[in-house]
Fold these 2 entries.
Entry 1:
Amino acid sequence: MKIKKLSVPLSMTAALAGLIACGVSCAKKNESPTKSTLPPPAEPLPTNAPAAPTNSAAAPAPVVVDNTTVTNVPPATEITNPPPAETTLKAPEPVTTPETNVPGHNTVVEMPTNPPAAPTNFYAPSFVSAQGGAKSSGPVLTPIGQTSEGCTNFFFRFRAGYEHVYHGDNNDSYWLSAKFYAFGDGLRQQAPGNAWLIPDADAEVSSGYVAKPDGDRHPGAGQGLQFRAAFTWPWIHWTELMFTRTNSICPFCRPLALGLGPTVNLGFDHLYDETDYRFARYAGVRLTFNRTGYVEYTVGETEGLDSTRQQVVAEIPFYESRDGEVRYYLRGLWNHGLSSKPDILEGGLFVEMPFSTLVQPDKWGDLVPFAQ
């Protein structure tokens, strides 16, 4: 009887446990898909596994954060095949010189062992001769004739320009003249012991305004003819290179051949409305620039002008063509007497050229100053 009482509760207990298990299983089936658990983490791929194909249509795998350090990765294989040789030539690299113009750096300049010596003959014949083919830094003049290496050179030039004259009145006039040069270089070479006796000479006959006599009823200046001949002995001479410039048209920007010595001027003045000729004589010292330009101071007399006269004359070339044939001058004269009579003042601008330039149209371009 007791056995029957125990079996009933056991069977009831088993039935109740089966109902509970069935209910729990149904509850799990009815849960929402969003609450599903994540799959376990995937195994890390080996380092030598092939890369996954990029064109696969499967959904991308979820990103898994793995902090595991891989220690068995093999080292990268070194490429031992050399690259192919270049077939194109490279341009040479520019050579850079060290900068020497820096503070504390001194550049050493070696001077020549033998310094240049001055020529024994100061005025060589080639200095003024353009026909001999010699190159010189001095003025180049075309001689009238040259029969031998040692002969004296002669030059004939035409001069024209504008002049202003003051002798108690003011007059503006044209200036036309013919000038003759004679340089005694050849004679000085043939007579070395007596070379100091041989001068350089120039003579000029000009038409323009000249001073009237002080006793004239109408004092002043009038149209007339003037002739002057000058003899200069260049006893002292030297070369100045201070203002030298390369290929310059300014005569003072080239090597200057300077000469200093005594000079004597002789000539006459003649007015067109009178018949007499008034003799003039002066002596002094002259400083020459490349022969053609000069500044001189002389003392003397001119007939018709009162007392002894002091005279300063300057002819300064300020432009010269490349071949040296055409030159422009500034000319000035101051003549002062001891009496109270008015001084003579002259100033002008002149161009000088060979007579052959007038008949050669291809040379007319040299007459335009500073156009080269």
Note: Residues 32-36, 54-59, 118-151 have pLDDT under 50 and may be disordered.
Entry 2:
Amino acid sequence: MEEFMGVQTLLMRERDGRTQAQAIALAAEQIKNAGFKAIEIVPAQFQSVAGKEAAQFLGKNFDEKERRNLRDLLKSFSLVTVHGSNIVLRVPPRQGKEKENEDLWLPYVELMRFAHDIGAHLVTFHSLQPAEGAGITDAEMADYHIAFGKVAARYAQNWNFNAGFELATRYKFFLENNILQRIGSSRFGSLVDLGHIALYFPTSLDITASVLRIAEEGMDSIFEFHAGGVNLTSQGLREHRPLDENNILDHRRFMELLAKKKYRGAIIFEIFFQPAKPEQIHASFSENLAICLEAKRQLLKG
């Protein structure tokens, strides 16, 4: 499983005067030197962009040369994913066939183009957001997610990668509306964030079992997991934590499930905080690489 385990460039939180592309390339180089075989590129990691601004952002900050350089750098990884953190697609009020207008999907289409240009194997998106005052029902939002998923599946087929939505803070919405089943493509699936889903079970007597039940039920369509520790604090559950003595999410059982299901997709560590501290204190990039390496060691040890 080691070839499928990696980290996000998002661990690098400061640009230190570098361009977006330079900072991400530096993070990728250091992730490679740390011995990770998989990597997740987050092109908008230093700022949030929405709508047409997102498409313009990707074109401006990652020109043809930067994409080619990044593609060459990433050839040494066995698995490359792209994640749409901070790229926001807002749905306007329903207007006839608006959901069939590909201009609406432009931010995510350009994210897919970026993924194709750098040689990624998978691109994942956050859920769509209703525009302010749009007054869209959950059923209508489900229709928009399905319409986009079918568009994304066509691009994924043409560009030979997979795509999917992140099932995290709105995972119940995706399950209750059968989003993935209604998209109906083997090219379009999901990214499951174990820590985010754990937050839905604050009163569970066995949080690991509650989270793994969700993972097991959707395993056939899961292309990627975000993994990290979960702490029970005086403020409630907190995710994106190291796998230290404060972690209550049993990743040994997670690995047993993956072995049972013969899972061969990405496992990206999304860990941002210092170990053995209940406070949410961010670790530095180098500290976090070491923390993620320890997490990988633990998962491989079983």
Note: The chain has a mean pLDDT of 93.
